Amino acid sequence: MTLPEPTPDISAFLASSVHDMKNSISILIGGMEKILAAADRESPEYQDMSHMMYETKRINGNLIQLLTLYKLGNHLYPFSPEDWLLDDFIHETLSQQQPLLESRGIAFEVDCEPDLIWPFDADLVGGVVGHALNNAIHYTQNRIRLVVRRAAEGLELRVEDDGRGYPQKMLDDGVAAMQGVDFQGGSTGLGLYFSAMVARLHRNKGKTGSIRLENGGAWGGGCFVLCLP
Amino acid sequence: MSLPQQQLPADFGDKSFLIIDDFHGMRSILRDILRSCGVNPRNIATAANGGEAIALLEKNRFDGVLCDFNLGAGKNGQQVLEEAKFRSLIGPGCAWIMITAEKTTDVVMGAAEYQPDAYLIKPITEATLRLRLDKIWSKKEAFADIDRAVVEQDFLRAVKLCDQRLATDRSNAGELLRLKCQLLLSAGEHEQARSLCSAILAERDVPWAKLGLARAQFAAGELAEARALLEALVAENRTFLEAYDWLVAVLKAQDDLTKAEEVLEQAARLSPNSVTRQKILGEVALQLGKLDNAEKAFRKSVALGEHSVLKTADAYLGLAKTCSAKDNPNEALQVLGTLTKQFNDDEVKVKALATEGMVHHKAGDPIAARKVAQQLGEALNQSGVRTDSATTLEMAELMLVTGEKSQAVALLQDEVRNNPEDKTLLGRVQQVFDTASMGAEGSALVEASRKEALELMNQGVLLVRDGKFDEALAALRTACERLPSNVRVLLNFAHLALGIMQKTAVDPALVDEIRERLLTVRRLAPGEKRCAQLMSQLDTLTR
């Protein structure tokens, strides 16, 4: 008689492996930054290297999202909304994307109400905006714009590009329908799922945060919108 | 706004740094980043573990520390930070950045006073580090005068400085309000804290303001309201550990230990590495008679304390008591032996003896118990150490069961004299007498000591009324010596001495004496309003 195999707690293994992978990726990214900083910008190696950096950062972003979702699900994520001067926050978030934007020759604009202060969890919201920017970098022709302003629902952060925009079906179905996995299309739904979760965590006076997708903005391309109450 | 490349980068050319990371690869990456930030490589020190880090911190003053949370075996990053702060190895201007692979409760949730200035999640880039350091240093500069007032223990001056800064500094407003709220609560100005929090909450749901409101309610004795608010707060903010700790305090005040244990268990699951929380959990479980839970929590606290400067003798004492309650006196004695080897301190020695005597008594060895009780009596007389009320009552119990009646009576009378107005404590003292079948004799003794203390306290007041200030001061000084833990006597002394100095001249020796007495009050009764007011007056007089 054979004993049944014990069922491992896959989610705990996933979480600990992801944690471990993150350490390796940190070393990778650190090394690449050093090489990129020293490389000749006109060389083909620079382009290859910057593409590698883009992919590595994408992996890192996904791992962070996976880990965060795991922690949130187990109530182990220390959600910590704090007052942020939006100028500072955007500065910091953009600094992560700056080398990539530059290496791809993408023009970037920021339109942020000056002296705007809002409370939110900067690590989570930074992850959401970073993901949206990464997407925009992928779909844009050559321009991206970040708009931060006070709106009726609260603070509005918009990432706009000048690409073809989202397919009509995606807009019609709304955010709720976009969380399935689509391996063919290369979309795991993780980013949107994560973004929606982060938005919902932010609450104030009975209102919760939200995300939505639009076509339009300054150049008629795709817009990702995050609202925080 | 300007884009990153247009912003003038901050220059860190004159700053010194310590990098703490167990991976060589990470250390060299961080070193490269600091170099690109303009830091002179000669001013960058590195450590591969907690021990090396502490040795470097002992020898140098760093402007910034980049510390990985996970340092392999030995101390973790949080424990290094705790030791550095506890032993003042870093100055108030030092920016401590904790680097973690991920954000998780067991990393982030230390005690509030041992928080780093920022947590950064790997990978660290030059731009992020530059921005963060810049932000931390400019905030430290903005808060420097407030920090100084806090270090000098003048909470009310710190509140005033917060108000001044709030009038102009909008970007730090949230942080200033939070700090002001904490300062008001520490100064015993609970009603001011209450209105501050209520005003904030009318605008927005801010968790710390809810906690502040609950603390104000707790201080005002509104236990049911405070409990309801804190329960809602932890339900909405499942990882807000400070709220759990205050909820436990309220539940203990309500004598609902069952619920307190439950809440502590939840908090300990979120943040399993807190030496202090595990110790409190053990104490509550022991009081409830849940010996297995108590043992587990005390053992955990002792183990966590191995690398921590926050390790506490109480965890060992609790573990010894638990072993004794589980009829395992040998292990209890062994734990006490380890305790006295670990802590070289008169108070710990006395507490350990009190526990040791009870272990022998419970194990049915009256001869050993009596011998320890006598040792304890000698130790008390020699060291003149003052213990907290709970320990004093324990010592008196031991003296009574071992026949050292006169020692017991002296301890209990002393306790009554120092707290003649604390009805709960008087009740407990009476209980100790009752248990020893000394009910009637005990209540006469309690009453006599209470009267004696009140007379001593009134003497000074009467002399003041008659305008005999110098005699009053001498009388109150005598009262302070006789009743060294009597909060009201200590405060009256400080009040009178300050009044005299305000009319005549500042006497440095008297200033020191007042400060020392007020610091005793702060230790005995944190959040005592009169103490904060007198501290502020003293500060104004001597600045």
UniProtKB/TrEMBL annotation, chain A:
Keyword line: Kinase, Membrane, Phosphoprotein, Transferase, Transmembrane, Transmembrane helix
Enzyme Commission number(s) of this protein: 2.7.13.3
Catalytic activity entry: ATP + protein L-histidine = ADP + protein N-phospho-L-histidine
InterPro entries xref list: HATPase_C_sf, HATPase_dom, His_kinase_dom, TCS_sensor_his_kinase
SMART domains, alphabetized: HATPase_c
Residue stretches making up the Histidine kinase domain: 16-229
Entry superkingdom: Bacteria
Signal peptide range: none
Molecular function terms from GO: protein histidine kinase activity
Protein name, as recorded: histidine kinase
Organism of provenance: Oryzomicrobium terrae
Automatic annotation (TrEMBL), chain B:
Coiled-coil spans in chain: 216-270
Modified-residue entries (4-aspartylphosphate), positions: 68
Domain Response regulatory: 16-137
InterPro entries found in the cross-reference section: CheY-like_superfamily, Sig_transdc_resp-reg_receiver, ST_Response_Regulator, TPR-like_helical_dom_sf, TPR_rpt
Keywords, comma-separated and alphabetical: Coiled coil, Phosphoprotein, TPR repeat
Record carries keyword Phosphoprotein: yes
GO biological process, one term: phosphorelay signal transduction system
TPR repeats: 453-486
Top-level taxon of origin: Bacteria
PANTHER family referenced in this protein's UniProt entry, alphabetically: TWO-COMPONENT RESPONSE REGULATOR, TWO-COMPONENT RESPONSE REGULATOR ARR22
Protein name (database record): Response regulatory domain-containing protein
Taxonomy of the source species: Bacteria, Pseudomonadati, Pseudomonadota, Betaproteobacteria, Rhodocyclales
